[in-house]
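tokens incoming
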């Protein structure tokens, strides 16, 4: 009989990009995204994510340098796999780099990386970052082709794109949300079997978090836009505490790996604010 594996505590990474979006709307230095990162850590964040986009629309180079100097928790440097960004990452030496696709015209990261098509380039970038002691995470759609491709390029982590699932749930398309959730569950299991660490993120809010948190193979959620928006009303520590509670509750009631139970979908439910 195989051992029952209790999933470890799920880490919460807080993405502070949108504090910088508000700052940049007026120019100047306020609100300071590094202050938000420090507050998030004080409130229990397990790591901080920041995306240095090519167009510097939110996070700027000096934010990344300050984050690296000033925060005590792992820095997850989200970036496109361009020569410029790889150069900055090698200089910054964050805990991890999360490689994402980037289009100038998009409002946010719209889809996952096509790792299979980008194999040759991503393999070189991954090796370069790994040689500098930086873990590499690839932001992918939850499908087996991309999981296998991520393994083939030598990444340590895959971050599964939860955007399509969250959007379907928000649009009350429950059948589509369930399909998307199944894809996330399957991809998480597949990646875990291949020895990849599994993270998930994009578009997560109080309503969508529980079913993702209940996937035993997922080790970390990265959440930004919703938490920063909610912080306007209740403050960042309170918004994070509510998210943490929902994550922990879902995790506590998740089917254990190896328990012999077929994993059932937790009820998709909407959370009262
Ligand atoms: N993970 C990745 C790879 C992302 O690109 C983003 C958005 O910047 C997030 C997580 C966080 O998404 P959201 O801001 O929608 O919570």
């Amino acid at each position: 009989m195989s051992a029952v594996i209790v999933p470890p505590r799920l880490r919460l990474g807080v993405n502070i990009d949108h504090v910088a979006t508000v700052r940049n709307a007026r120019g100047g230095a306020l609100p300071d995204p590094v202050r938000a990162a420090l507050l998030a850590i004080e409130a229990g964040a397990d790591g901080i994510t920041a995306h240095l986009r090519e167009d510097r629309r939110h996070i700027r180079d000096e934010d990344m340098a300050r984050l690296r100097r000033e925060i005590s928790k792992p820095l997850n440097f989200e970036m496109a796999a361009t020569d410029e960004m790889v150069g900055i990452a090698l200089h910054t030496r964050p805990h991890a780099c999360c490689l994402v696709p980037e289009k100038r015209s998009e409002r946010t990261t719209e889809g996952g990386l096509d790792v299979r098509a980008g194999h040759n380039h991503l393999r070189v970038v991954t090796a370069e970052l790994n040689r500098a002691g930086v873990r590499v995470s690839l932001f992918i759609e939850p499908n087996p082709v991309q999981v296998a491709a991520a393994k083939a390029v030598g990444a340590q982590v895959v971050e599964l794109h939860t955007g399509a699932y969250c959007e379907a749930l928000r649009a009350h398309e429950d059948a589509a949300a369930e399909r998307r959730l199944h894809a996330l569950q399957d991809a998480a299991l597949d990646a875990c079997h291949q020895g990849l660490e599994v993270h998930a993120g994009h578009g997560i809010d109080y309503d969508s978090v529980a079913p993702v948190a209940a996937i035993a193979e997922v080790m970390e959620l990265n959440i930004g836009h919703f938490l920063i928006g909610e912080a306007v009303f209740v403050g960042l520590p309170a918004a994070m505490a509510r998210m943490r509670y929902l994550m922990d509750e879902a995790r506590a009631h998740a089917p254990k790996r190896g328990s012999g139970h077929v994993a059932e979908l937790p009820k998709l439910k909407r959370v009262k604010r």
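note: Residues 230 and 239 are 6 Å apart (CA to CA).
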